[in-house]
Amino acid sequence: MNIIGNIIWLLIGGIIASVLWSLAGALLCITIIGIPFGLQHFKFAKLGLIPFGAKIR
Fold first, then answer.
1. If 0-12 CB within 10 Å is exposed, 13-18 middle and 19+ buried, where does residue 56 land?
2. Whole-prediction pTM value?
3. DSSP secondary structure string, 19-52?
4. CA R_g for the chain
5. What is the mean pLDDT of residues 36-56?
6. Nearest CA to 5 among 54, 57, 42, 56?
């Protein structure tokens, strides 16, 4: 069921969400103060691709 949910999620909007999180993370990593927040955005981008069955640490 996780595989079907992930495929449907990618088709509906997961790719767009992941690209936007990655773009926001890249913009935040430009400044020194924003680097920790930017790195967290990259984790959310990874989660945006495969949300079902994924674990965040």
1. exposed
2. 0.82
3. HHHHHHHHHHTTSTTTHHHHHHHHHHHHHHH--T
4. 13
5. 89
6. 54
Q: Give the domain ranges of the chain.
A: 2-49
Element spanning 10, H or E? none
Task: Look up tokens 């989660």; give the residue.
Answer: 47
In the prediction, which pLDDT does 45 show?
A: 93
- Distance (Å, rounded) from C-alpha 55 to C-alpha 57? 7
Residues in the chain: 57
Q: How many angstroms separate the CA atoms of 3 and 14, rounded?
A: 14
Q: How far is CA 17 from CA 9, 27, 32, 33, in A?
A: 10, 15, 25, 24
